[in-house]
Each structure stands twice: as structure tokens, then as C-alpha cells.
Amino acid sequence: MKIIIAKNYDEMSEIAAREIADFINNKPDAVLGLATGGTPAGMYKELIKLYKEGKVDFSKITSVNLDEYVGLSGEHEQSYRYFMDDNLFNHVNIDKSKTFVPNGLAEDIDASCREYDQRISELGGVDLQLLGIGGNGHIGFNEPAEYLYQGTHQTELAESTIEANARFFDSIDEVPKKAITMGIGGIMKSKKILLLASGENKAEAVAQLVSGKISTKAPASMLQMHGDVVVVIDEAAAKFIKRA
Ligand code: GLP
After folding, report:
1. Glucosamine/galactosamine-6-phosphate isomerase domain spans which residues (predicted)?
2. What is the pTM of this model?
3. Who's near 24: CB < 8 A, 6+ residues apart?
């Protein structure tokens, strides 16, 4: 696991955007696994800037997103489809027909999850998976639990996640209680992983991720078993990492 400690959120965003742009420049037809949330928003802004400067080209990229709320349509401002359109896709030359986000309105959610995994495997798998991390150590919406899932599945959000995400909604009652998320197996299958974290409220989860015991109660700790993970965090999120 390679750990890059940035001074602050802005520097984290710049470093991460450069990592992604370099990755795309080396593999212009890459399959990117994308993530949403407050953490990557600044990184997407930087990526748009790099695109406008002619330093990265999305024309051959395919993207698959990590997760989506159940019950929200892509037009809902808090859906992850809307987030992706608004924060990246509408501002770069990506072919939108090659951008995939789980369908939060699917009639048969289990079947649509299986189709999602099928699509990812037909695409040849995810080349680079971007991740944030929940304050409770979740990745995607794989919440701390007795057991974790391999494939894409429907899940209930932890109370702490509902509380954390309430800041994006008018009231906590509007936060969906369920979501669709790629499973830990799906995340682990991606060839490379880039995880971002910023702020002291992520410091404990980051310490677990980097050097804690591997446990389903700290889903991000599973990433210790992946061979190619780059973690870009700011100093506040690095607070509890033991330095050698
Ligand atoms: C959300 C998402 C995750 C995200 C995490 C942290 O609920 N499902 O994919 O990484 O929680 O979000 P934020 O970056 O807003 O702190």
C-alpha cells in the first residue's frame, strides 16, 4: 500500500486528479470505477481543469460507479447518477452511454445487481477503482458487519452513515435507508485502487485501513490484501497513522 500524505484537501485533490489523469494517459480506454461523496468532489474539479487544459482525454473511457441510493432516480439531485453528471460527465468528453451507475429504481434489484456485475466482467473488469471511506470504515456502502458480500448487492445503511449523509439532504428523514453497492469482492477484483480521505473525522478509519487488524467490522481493512492500492490523504486524516 502506497500512502501519500498531502498538506490539505486541495493538495489531496490535485495529487489524486494527477494520478487519474496519468492513468488515463497510459490507458486511454480504461474502465474507471468511480465514487461519489464530499471527498472526491475537489478531485473531479481538478480533473475537469486538466481536461480543459488538454491534458487528459475521456473519449475512450468507460466508467462504472460504486454505489447508488435505492429509491432515487437519476434526476434526483442527491442520486449518485446526478452527482456524476454534475461533477464530471457534463464537463468532459466522456461518452455518457459508456457511464454506468447502479439503478436505484430497478424493479428487480437483485437481478439488476447481477447484470451490473456481468457488465463489469464483460468490460474486462475495473482498471482503476476510486474510493472514499466512511467514518465507520465503510467502502462503497459495504458497512461494518459480521460478514461482507462478494458481488454487487442491496444493503441497509448504518445509522452513522445516514447521519453523515444527512448533510446533503433537507432533513435526515429524506436520506434513503437502502443502497446498492459493489461488494468487497468486486472492489478487490479491480486492478488498481486509489483511496482518498480528508479530515480528522476519517483519521480512525484510515488508521484501521492502513495498519489495523483485517476485519469485516472495518471493511476498508480488506484493502490490505490488495496488491496495488494508493492512498492519498491529508494530514488531518493521517493523524493516527503510526509513523515508522
Ligand atoms: C458515502 C459513500 C461512499 C463514500 C463515503 C464517504 O456514504 N457511499 O462511497 O466514500 O460515504 O463520503 P464523504 O466523502 O462524503 O465523506
Report:
1. 11-229
2. 0.97
3. 30, 32, 56, 57, 58, 61
